Amino acid sequence: MMLTDVKTYRKPEFEIDEMFLNRWSPRSFSEKEVPTEILSSLFEAARWAPSAFNFQPWRFIVAKTNEERETFHSFISEFNLTWCKKAPVLSLIISKKAKDGAEFPTHSFDTGAAWGYLALQANKSGLVTHPMTGFDFQKAREVLEIPEDYAIEALVAIGYQDEKEKLPEKLQQREHPNERQSLQEFIFNGKFGSK
């Protein structure tokens, strides 16, 4: 269910598939449960992300039950809890930092690709996702018993979008897709800073 006219807020400089524009990060979540088959398809998409040396460093700790979500709530910031406590699924994204005893320099890069695949599949499945870093990383590590050889990357809320009017008033004004920098802002020719 598309509750926001994305084209009002996002205009690409070049033609691209609409899935890239339609993926954004709403905060208004319905408490409607996500069927297991649909949720599993998100992680199936993440599974096929590119990975250096096929290392596949990504891991997802998923909270679907009330008890699991309440455990996650214990380390989420007060601000983020105001909206994400309604999300039916929370997932902490972590990555394995080393391979064969040596630091694996692209573990975060590869895990970011897996997250991107998950987010696009969620959008195609009628779901929304909202990644966040507004939580206590160390407390999450302790509560979820995450070994030190895994980096904590981000937390993501997953579910069905709800009407913005169900958010606290201060968040309703922010409940729309953001624009992005122009290509000229982040593409350099030949060397850093060269336009």
TrEMBL record:
InterPro entries with a match to the protein in the record: Nitroreductase, Nitroreductase-like
What Gene3D superfamilies does this protein's entry cite?
A: NADH Oxidase
Query: Which Pfam families does the annotation name?
Result: Nitroreductase
The yes or no answer to whether the keyword Membrane is present is no
Q: In Gene Ontology terms, what is one molecular function of this protein? A: oxidoreductase activity
Domain Nitroreductase residues, every copy = 22-75, 78-160
Task: Indicate the family of this protein.
Answer: Belongs to the nitroreductase family.
Descriptive protein name: Nitroreductase family protein
Which keywords are on file for this protein?
Oxidoreductase
Q: Which SUPFAM superfamilies match?
A: FMN-dependent nitroreductase-like
Keyword Lyase recorded: no
Domain of life of the organism encoding this protein? Bacteria
